[in-house]
Amino acid sequence: MTEPKIKRIFPTHLISSFTSLTKRGSSGWMIVLGSIIVSALVIMTAIGPWVAPYSPTKYGVGPIRSPPSFQHLMGTNHIGQDMFSRILVGGSIMLQISALSVLICFIIGVPLGLFSSYIGGFFDSVVSLVIDAIYAFPGLVIAIAIAAMLGPGVINMALSIAVVYIPSYFRIVRSQVLSIKELTYVEAAKATGAKWYTILYRYIFPNVIPSIVVVATINFADAILTAAGLTFIGLGVTYDIPDWGWDLTNGKTYLASGAWWIIFFPGLMIILLALGFTLIGEGLSELINPKLQR
Amino acid sequence: MGLRTYVITRILLTIPTLLLLLSMVFLVMRVLPGDPADLHFEKKATPEQLAEMRQKLGMDKPLWQQYIDYLWGIFDVGYLLEHHYPNLGKSMQNYEEVGGQIFSAFPATLELAIYSMIIASIIGVLLGVVSSKSYNSVLDHLLRGFGTVTYAIPVFFLGIVFQLIFAVYLHWLPTGLRLHPEVSPPVGLIIPLNPSSTDFFHNFLSSSIAGVVCAALCIAFMKMKRVKFKFKGIIISIAVFFVCWFAYAYLSWYFICLGRFQITTGLYTIDSLLEGNLYTFFESCKALLLPSLTLGIILSGIFLRLTRTNMLETLRLDFVTAARARGLSETTVTYGYALRNAFLPVLTMMGLQFAMLLGGAILTETTFSWPGLGTYIVSRINYRDYTAIQGAVVMFGFFVAIVSLVVDILYAYFDPRIRL
To answer: Which chain A residues have a beta carbon less than 8 Å from that of B21?
Structure first.
């Protein structure tokens, strides 16, 4: 007998699973709070261009460096652009860069980790040595070196950030596979004559997914901060695209005049976005291995 | 495995890691698409300009030869002894030695790193202990929130906010730089040498005496430790004699050539104390406070969480209960018993965090115009000076490798399990 498919008009099941999360203690609250922050910011960025009161790139829509007022909720910057409109749309570059870098990390780091630890031997030792060398190195320095060579641009920044965080995926996958591949069900799969790629994809990979999700969410926060750092150093996208990182960097020049609103709001947005992902990541990791549940 | 074997293995393992790092830096800088010389001129250079630059920087040679030159330059001890910095190539901007520029910028970064590490560990460990003691209370949740938020704040944003509050509005502290421009930087300890001691025979004699004294000390130490004074002991004491002799001779020759005895660490706080100049010390502390506090607070979150987790685990162990049962005060139990045992993982974390700290230091330095390696890299990026960026990255790599080596050895010394 098969269950009749219920067509849900209103996603009550999603809400109920959300509320049940909050009953799991602090980790559930963290996930819920993080998801709310992240989805709010993503929605804000998505609908931003339509609701922005002024054009985010148009010069002189208001007086230069005017403090927050009713006309300009978050003030204006040094060329009279409306900060509130820029904040509304400015998340897109940062979200694109970090999403792309997480994707690249996932595509390269996970298969490499699966394959390397599954076959083991010389290949594994060499790859691990290389990865560990990258891992031990200050991430921002690598990203700076690569981004400086590749030049500005969303894809180039995503690539340079991805190189930094591939090791964290590789290491977590490798350590998990090392223990999983000794389990009896994998041995049974081998005995039935399954090919190595079938074993990796069908039997081992699904068991690694939870840890990868945790790494990916925390990595998302790291990628946002690294992207902001690269922008701050001057390796970011060009100035005619509204971007929180660029606004923050630009605002530093006008610090001495006391124009706090140019830096404060973009900075706050970056913090919120990174905090949202950090909260989700930490909550998930606590949910997966509840170490300190007394 | 004994401690000695572990230390030797660990040192030997550092060599391939370093070689790998250096190769990767070379790979990124030379093999990745885009010719550095061409990029330096923003692709507007005439062929003559390009050829001249390539010839001056040795980039006209085949790639493998450039690679050999690059590695050889870094490990060239003769060059190091002559110039007191390694050969990291020439800058594209003005053909100056990159090594010299980097070594003059390095102490600033080191000073910032040391003080922010101290601040981070003090704040992090103390708050971690407080948080674990008040487990699941409001204070605990607040402190955990602090730990999470510090993870999400960009270093430079916190720095800018501090600048805005303490420098722009309150005028308490300077906005940046290592020292107020009107204060001359400290030079450290300087003792003028008596010119009569410059003669060769005198120098030879005194260094021999130093060698003999050191060898004698070494023998006495071995006797004290009851090492059997056979073939190995003799070899060791002879080696100690020669090393000390050479070191003394080299150093005294160096100071005699300089005409004075000088200790300059490049760390302004220490130099000004060596000089005995309290005013400069005070000024450098004032300049150091905001950058190190910024970086320290950002890092303290990680220490807080780690200390909290370890303390929670340790406080549940039997020996803590036993200590409490013996009637020791709660403070003694917490700090004297539990924290001592929970501290080791935090120490390892400090080593691992050093890499992250250096990344943060680049951004902090840029925020506070702190004249260190980070500011150097950023200014070189603006000039598209790729050889200089490469040199600075290599320097960072060496720094991280040495720090992690030291931390690993320290950890093995404190925790014998790691050596097994």
So the answer is: 133, 137
